[in-house]
Amino acid sequence: MKANRTSRIVIVALLLFFAFCTLFPLYFMLVSSVKTNAELQSNYFGFPIEPQFHYYGNAMMKIKTYMMNSAFISALSAIGVLILSSLSAYAFARFRFRGKNALFFTLLVFLMIPGVLTLIPQFVLVKNMGLINSPWAAILPFIASGQLVTIFVMRTFFEGIPKELFESIKIDGGSEFRCFLSLVVPFSLPIILSMGLVTVLNTWNDFFWPLLVLPDQQKMTLTVGLYRFMDQQQILYGQVFSAMSLASVPLMLLFSFTMKFFVQGLTSGAIKA
Amino acid sequence: MKSLKATESKAAYLCLLPTYLFVAVFLIYPTLEAIRISFLDWNMRDYYHPTFVGLANFREIFNNDVFIESFKVLAIFLGWALVVLQGISVLAGYLIYLLGASRFAQVIKVSFIIPMVIPGMVTTLFWLFFYEPGNGMLNVLLGKLGLESWQKVWLGESQFSAIGSLLMKGFPWISGIGFLIYLAGFQSLDESVRESARIDGASGWKIFWSIDLPLIIPQLKLTTILVLIGGIQQYGDQYILTKGGPGYDTTVPGLFLFNNAFTYGKLGIGSAAGVTLFLIIALFTVLNLRFMKSRT
């Protein structure tokens, strides 16, 4: 085929090695999450002999609030991003209006504003708005910056919808809003979903912004909570690893159902990164 | 007809309004503020009394050894990300491509995708544990191999070991979208081109360099600028793993900014660093656009 036998063996070996190194941390995290410290010492890499499943219960108690906070922030950010960017993308794809190209170009410019530049003034802004320790301190800026790439991706997608389909709705007396709801949304559901997932992933993973604006123990997001958890010089490794495993579950679940959209969306969203 | 156009415009502006409202408040205004704050002596402890100091903040950071040194540290991380991290993603994409469509290739692909949905913090905390002196995996592994003399406080002993440990964090680094992009690039070429090269007696190595690699140049250009822009702003690993230490040995400009603004409360100094980084990023972006134009 494409490679002869020896080189094929080398390729397979190399890929297996990479895959092993990639997945080993996950294996280690899972087996260590139910080991006592003593067992971690005596049986470092092996399967747990006396699994301490109650570590998961304890860890869950500690991170439950953080997880709810993160879920709320990620969900609302994704909804906000999708609403704002589908509206704008629709306007750019469908309507003719004065300043259309200029407005679109400015969006491209905004996309290039780096986070390091806006970090401090955004913090000052949110602080002056009195939003510190409110989830909106995270949600609103996430929407503002998350919508831009999504607009680009969606516009391209919306423009690909055949004009005749719009015409037929119009002829039946349907409004623009009708076009949007019953044509554009169903037609581009995969891309809408994937952009929503990308937003969830980005917001769920963000660390520094929630660290700054949500310092309260009750308002903290999951990433910050985990960091603090580890920072306390926790003596119980098993519990730390339980918390880390639990923290990975929601995204794992979400993405196991939607992997196809997700990869698609990430590749198209690569323009931002 | 004219009124129709007017309603169309109105509808369009109405649709765009929320987007631009958010952009104005959370992007444009902060951008202007960043520049203004960089001219202020403004401390979090004296929040209500900022004073205008002109370019003093810039003078201060450019005379600050920590800030200057942080760019050398940054250069190491950027070089590593551009050459090694990109290289290994290209390699992984190419190897998977060479395997062709097989079940094994599919399994390997998925095993590189799974870590993407693990929260970055979980991965980073695993590596923090990996380097931990007492029970960390690296020292335990060395102990089991009888190499006790090699054990170290990896993240704190010297600049060399701290930077080295940070660079090795995340090995083999394939869990990004990079390799998927490259894989798609390699797969886009018509197989007959490679076939004819093979018939002409070209080696596998030659085919890679002269046919396959040029194929993904557009992707490489894109990822290069993204890695640069992202890399200049990156300080998460340093913050979590080394706190920029030992001393300031692993402090990158982004961390300098963050610590000044939010640990010491010097908002003016932090903003001056932010504006400086922004100018560097803008320079890279412009150069990149020029470069892309001249080549196409």
What is the strand and helix layout of this fold?
The complex is a heterodimer of chains A (273) and B (296).
Chain A (H helix, E strand, L loop, with lengths): L4 H28 L4 H6 L11 H41 L5 H12 L3 H14 L7 H24 L3 H9 L4 H12 L1 H17 L2 H6 L8 H10 L5 H33 L4
Helix pairs in contact in A: 1-12, 3-6, 3-9, 3-11, 3-12, 6-9, 7-8, 9-12, 11-12
Chain B lengths: L1 H36 L2 E2 L9 E2 L3 H7 L2 H35 L3 H11 L6 H12 L5 H8 L14 H10 L9 H10 L3 H9 L4 H12 L1 H17 L2 H7 L10 H11 L3 H29 L1
Antiparallel strand pairs in B: 1-2
Helix pairs in contact in B: 2-14, 3-8, 3-11, 11-14, 13-14
Terminal residue distance of chain B: 42 Å
Q: How many distinct beta strands of chain A? A: 0
Shape of chain B: globular
Structural class of chain A: mainly alpha
The CATH architecture of chain B is Orthogonal Bundle
Q: Tally the structural domains of chain B.
A: 1
* Fraction of residues in helix of chain A: over 70%
Radius of gyration based on Cα positions of chain B:
25 Å
**H/E element sequence of chain A:** HHHHHHHHHHHH
Sheet-strand content of chain A, in percent, reads: under 5%
How would you sum up the major sheet of chain A? none
CATH superfamily of chain A: MetI-like
Give a description of the structure.
- The complex is a heterodimer of chains A (273) and B (296).
- Chain A has 273 residues and is mainly alpha-helical.
- Chain A has one domain: MetI-like fold (Orthogonal Bundle).
- In chain A, helix 3 packs across helix 9 and helix 7 (163-171) packs across helix 8 (176-187).
- Helix content of chain A is 78%, strand content 0%.
- The longest helix of chain A is centred in the first third of the chain and has 41 residues, at 54-94.
- Chain A has helices at residues 5-32, 37-42, 54-94, 100-111, 115-128, 136-159, 163-171, 176-187, 189-205, 208-213, 222-231, 237-269.
- Chain B is mainly alpha-helical.
- Chain B has one domain (23-295): MetI-like (MetI-like fold), CATH 1.10.3720.
- Chain B contains 14 helices and two strands, in the order H-E-E-H-H-H-H-H-H-H-H-H-H-H-H-H.
- Chain B has helices spanning 2-37, 56-62, 65-99, 103-113, 120-131, 137-144, 159-168, 178-187, 191-199, 204-215, 217-233, 236-242, 253-263, 267-295; strands spanning 40-41, 51-52.
- Chain B has a two-stranded antiparallel ribbon.
- In chain B, helix 3 (65-99) packs across helix 8 and helix 13 runs antiparallel to helix 14 (267-295).
- Chain B is globular, with a radius of gyration of 25 Å.
- In chain B, 38% of the residues are buried.
- The model of chain B has no long low-confidence stretch (mean pLDDT 89).
- Chains A and B meet through helix 1, helix 3, helix 4, helix 5 and helix 6 of A and helix 1, helix 3, helix 4, helix 5 and helix 6 of B.
